[in-house]
Write a structure and sequence with these properties.
mainly alpha; TPR-like_helical_dom_sf; 434 Repressor (Amino-terminal Domain); elongated; Helix-turn-helix domain-containing protein; Lambda_DNA-bd_dom_sf
């Protein structure tokens, strides 16, 4: 029973023994059975021990019941990339002591790993994942698949594409019911040069993001599909460029400059391949202007820009 778990948690936090908690209220044996959920008890006893622990048991039970709902909301916020909501919910859980004794503690820890991956703190996420790797406790079906998803994202970040594919492929979609993982699987397939499988997974992800009106992630998948189409010699170059321009406008409407920078970089590369160096250089330059000069992504665009200048019109080159 939830009351027993809550009472045990706060009793141990306060450093109180079962005898001290039950003194003048009930026996040590009865307190022990309440904490283990092995007996029925009167509301009066719960009220008295709660008062001794200085907690509002009704508020604690409500918080306990809302844990799963809050975790689902946190996951959805991360998928939708609603950054402010993500941070707000994280703060709420950091101040929620009950999560430690909740049956959803593993769910919370896996979402915390995902949060750190989202914020490019790979080492912290890796430490959490490592705990699950070493653990001898079997996870419930949903958490088991969530673990595979988070591990797959980490493997992608580490450029371990074949391992990412094997991990993400093993997800049971009927149990997990989060088709977002198809996007990460598509990225892994594309990096591993399995274009057909990448395209198939990208289509699954696109369908899911459209159903959930996830506009930012629609942009991500559409961009990946354009990369895949660039490998098809029969696909029309002008058609791809029109699509890039439309996606750049979508980035502006969604106020996502990071995605716009990637889009400009990819479009620049398309022009570079067909030796339109002047256009490529201008696009690389626009991409650079949206990036942190200390980042690796900036250096990639800078390299493309310099190469475009060297192969094309020298007047494009300026000092940085």
């Amino acid at each position: 029973m939830n009351e027993g778990k809550i009472i045990k948690f706060y009793r141990e936090q306060s450093g109180m023994t079962q005898e001290q908690l039950g003194k003048g209220v009930c026996s040590v044996t009865h307190i022990s059975k309440i904490e283990l959920g092995q007996t029925h008890y009167s509301p009066e006893i719960i009220t008295l021990v709660s008062k001794r622990l200085n907690i509002n048991i009704k508020e604690e039970i409500n918080a306990f019941k809302k844990t799963k709902q809050g975790l689902d909301q946190w996951l959805n916020a991360m998928i939708m990339e609603r950054k402010q909501e993500v941070e707000t919910i994280k703060s709420e859980f950091e101040n929620n002591n009950i999560i430690e004794i909740s049956e959803y503690h593993s769910f919370y820890k896996l979402l915390l790993a995902r949060y750190y991956l989202l914020n490019e703190k790979h080492d912290v996420a890796c430490d959490i994942i490592r705990i699950f790797k070493k653990g001898d406790k079997e996870l419930p079906p949903y958490e088991s698949n969530l673990y595979k998803h988070v591990l797959g994202i980490l493997l992608l970040k580490n450029q371990e594409y074949q391992q990412a594919i094997e991990t993400l492929k093993s997800i049971n979609n009927d149990t997990y019911k989060n088709p977002e993982y198809f996007y990460h699987l598509a990225i892994a397939y594309e990096a591993n040069d399995a274009k057909h499988m990448a395209y198939s997974c990208a289509k699954e992800a696109l369908r899911y993001f459209k159903e959930t009106s996830n506009f930012l992630r629609i942009i991500d998948v559409e961009m990946l599909i354009l990369i895949l189409k660039s490998h098809d010699k029969h696909h029309d170059f002008n058609d791809r460029c029109r699509k890039y321009e439309a996606l750049i406008q979508s980035c502006e409407l969604c106020h996502t400059s990071a995605r716009k920078a990637v889009m400009l970089h990819n479009m620049a590369f398309e022009y570079f391949v067909i030796k339109y160096y002047e256009t490529a250089g201008k696009l690389y330059k626009q991409s650079m202007d949206l990036k942190d000069k200390k980042s690796g992504k900036y250096l990639l665009s800078l390299e493309g820009y310099i190469q475009s200048c060297l192969k094309g019109s020298k007047h494009l080159l300026v000092s940085y």
